[in-house]
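Postdoc handover notes: sequence design on the structure in folder B. Input C-alpha cells:
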C-alpha cells in the first residue's frame, strides 16, 4: 500500500488506476450522496473517464502531497471512503480544502473526525499550509459538528448554487467562513469553515 498517512485506526493511501469500482460503489449509495446530488449516484463512466483520471493527475500536479486519498481500516483493511486535502484548481497551495466521503458502514465511528484531524496536522506541520477550509450544506448537521470539533470557524450563510437546488435543505443555503484576511467566503456558495495555522497550534487535541 502506498501509505500517505496513518492514524490510530485508519490508513490513507493514494488512489490507483485500479480503484474505479471502489469509487463507483461509494457514490452509488443514496444516503452517501444525499447532500451532494440529492441521492443520485455518480455514473460509472463518469468515475472511470473523468473523476479517477483527475484524482491521479492531482498527485502529479501536487507532488503527491495533496489530493484525494483512499481510507482503509487498519484492522481488516476495509475501504471506508476517502478524504480530501487539496487547493482549488487555480488557488494557492497554502490554502486547501478539507473534506471526506465515507461509506454508511463507517458512519458513527468517529472516523471522519479522526482522519480530518490527522490531515490538519499534516497540512500545518509538514506541507506548509496556512489555512484549511471546508464546505457543507447548512442542514448537514453531522458535518457541521465535525467542523466545530476541528476548531473551524463559521463565517456566513450564502445561497446554494442553482445546480444543487434539488438537494434537501437547499433553501437554507450553504455556509462560508472568514479567512485570515477577513474575506467572507468566496467562489463557491457553501457553508465554508476554516482553521488557520496559528489557531491550530493553540487548539486542544484531547
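Designed sequence:
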Amino acid at each position: 500500500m502506498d501509505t500517505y498517512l496513518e492514524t490510530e485506526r485508519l490508513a490513507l493511501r493514494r488512489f490507483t488506476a485500479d480503484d474505479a469500482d471502489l469509487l463507483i460503489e461509494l457514490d452509488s449509495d443514496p444516503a452517501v450522496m444525499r447532500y451532494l446530488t440529492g441521492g443520485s449516484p455518480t455514473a460509472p463512466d463518469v468515475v472511470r473517464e473523468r473523476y479517477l483520471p483527475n484524482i491521479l493527475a492531482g498527485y502529479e500536479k501536487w507532488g503527491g502531497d495533496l489530493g484525494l486519498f483512499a481510507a482503509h481500516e487498519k484492522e481488516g483493511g476495509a475501504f471506508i471512503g476517502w478524504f480530501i486535502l487539496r487547493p482549488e484548481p487555480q488557488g494557492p497551495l497554502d490554502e486547501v480544502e478539507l473534506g471526506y466521503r465515507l461509506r454508511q458502514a463507517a458512519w458513527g465511528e468517529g472516523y471522519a473526525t479522526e482522519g480530518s484531524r490527522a490531515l490538519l496536522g499534516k497540512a500545518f506541520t509538514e506541507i506548509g499550509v496556512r489555512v484549511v477550509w471546508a464546505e457543507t450544506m447548512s442542514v448537514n448537521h453531522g458535518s457541521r459538528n465535525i467542523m466545530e470539533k476541528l476548531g473551524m470557524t463559521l463565517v456566513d450563510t450564502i445561497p446554494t448554487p442553482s445546480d444543487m437546488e434539488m438537494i434537501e435543505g437547499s433553501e437554507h443555503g450553504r455556509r462560508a467562513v472568514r479567512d485570515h484576511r477577513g474575506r467572507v467566503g468566496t467562489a463557491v456558495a457553501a457553508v465554508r469553515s476554516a482553521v488557520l495555522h496559528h489557531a491550530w497550534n493553540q487548539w486542544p487535541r484531547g
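Context for whoever picks this up: The first strand starts at residue 3 and ends at 6. Don't rerun without checking with the PI first.
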